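Weekly puzzle thread! Below is a chain. First person to post its structure in token form gets bragging rights.
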Amino acid sequence: MAFTTNTIRNIAVCGHGGTGKTTLVEQILFNAGVTSKAESVDSGRTVSDFTEEEIEKKISIHSSLTNVIWKDTKINIFDTPGSSDFVGEVVSSFRASESAIMLIGARSSVQIETVKLWRRLDARDMPRIAFINKMEKTRADFYKVLEDLKNFQITAIPLSIPMGQAEDYQGVINLMNMKAYRKDGGGKEENAIDIPEEYKEIAEEYHLKMIEMAAEGDDGLTEKYFEEGTLTLEDAKKGLREGLFDNRFVPVFCGSAVDNSGISSLMDFIVFESPAPGRVEEPCVSGETSRMVSSEGATSGIIIKTMIDKFAGKMSYVKVITGKLTSNSEVYNSREEKKERINKLFLCEGKDLKETNEVLAGDIAVLTKVESLATNDTICTADEVIHYKSLALPHPVFSLAINAENQKEEDKMSAQLHKVAEEDLTFTIKYNEETKETVISGMGELHINIILEKLLKNFKINVSRRTPKVPYRETINSPAEAEYTHKKQSGGHGQYGRVCLRIHPLERGKYFEMTNDTKGGSISKGYMPGIEKGLLESMNEGFLAGYPLMDIGVSIFDGKEHPVDSSEMAFKLAGKHALKVAVEKAKPTLLEPVMNLTVFIEDQYMGDVLSDLSTKRGRVLDQQPVGVGIQSIMAQVPQGELMRYSIDLKSMTSGTGAFEVEFSHYDPVGGKIAQDIIKASEI
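Winning reply:
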């Protein structure tokens, strides 16, 4: 069956860990006839969680793409991880989708990852639907969760309500068609029945509320509602559709994924009311015009995800933005500036690939064995070059310095970890020339541990790990002046160069400036590049503890050269040593990197976390209640105090706390801390 851009929906299923995302996707696949049975996560046979580590740990680690046909509409579904350690997978799914389903536990309500993911959706101004799951659980409370959603400063519109809760849960009432759907323990279909007598009054009450709230989704409907006092169901649907797209409110559904209850109402809404790709504008890099998703025009698309399979090789997930992508065609990789041949196109259902001949704008496909393609790449035509904006991925928050226990396996270890970094852009591996360490970074301890466990299991590489050294810097606090003459005679031509310079502190972050203020040709212009090389070499070597110098302005005001013995090398060495002499006079000091830290915790842990930040020399900038018993704390903390923060926070909050971190600036560090850093550098 052929699908147009308007008969496609792309949706990301997201939420805090344990809210039932994979179970929901399993039931959707089952109800749509894609699978013959909805598997449990414990069985290890779900369509979404198919990698060895996901089956073993019984959690989602990667985002997984499946698709169903529901009422003549193709729905691409991303099942995303709930742990913050794998948030990069969620970000790529958001980028490929027009809307999201946020799962919230009927008993656990809004949790920390709910808050963080909601903020990410806000940053994208992305429409979302809330699905209150696990209505069958003890102490499930739909109306409490509905109240808690108000903390997000949004209008939540219930489009289904439960018949009973917890042990008394019987099914849902769809407020749009005013029909009841009784749960039947996981049967193939939810059959519509008349609303039971005991629920008619509350159903009518919430139906009228829905009509009233839907009127706010469109200005014309608001006026009509005030004039007539009500809306037709078609008008209400239009209001819901427009209000969802404009993020004026959030539709709320409820049900029990494990009991296959409440799902048909959710899916019908996605098909008929959620935004199609054609309503979305895809941003380009600065200076280029954004593109509306449309089957018109030349082919273009963005690579939103990369996987490397031991059988299929490199798999590039592409969302087609304009035109259509066909097999046996040629595309242009705008980053590499080269043409690539697309031999085969595939649609994806978990780990299974199904070959197809063409994919229209708005749809998502998989390209195999196109080696030049990487996540964030744009494919287009050579005649109309485009660069779509990259994914807004978070910064890694946890780092380790590593080396292979068997030194002969060092290259093999590095090669395999670079492959991981190609798949997962929230994981990095770098060799730090400054500290002489190989440092890997990721989104948390679990994230890193899973990668290193896989390295051991698949390649028998044991890795030793330790806390990385902090990348300190050095700078100066006052102006100074110095001169140095490099003079050497050893038969034949000698070496001669004299440099006189003044140095002064620069504004933080300026790094280095050099000016030639000599007069009368005391140093030829041809020797200035050599002097600059010497200065930069001296800055890189540092002065106090071997850390690079930064934020120094240098004025070369005088010098002397020899008609025979002067050379660029001689002036390079003169400049290098002159700077060292000047720095010694300029009150050198150590600088430490300071990070912006945002912590999300439950109220009960506030005192412990604030006390801990104080011991870490943290400066709290702001703290705000997010609602539902969750607080956010914004602080600036030296990086050296945060090297084990993921472990510390986990311990303090019984594993419930979460945080985000990014570099802010460098600050001076003195006293005993500076003495200890300098002393450690001498060992």
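Puzzle host: Confirmed. Bonus trivia for everyone else. The CA atoms of residues 609 and 652 lie 7 Å apart.
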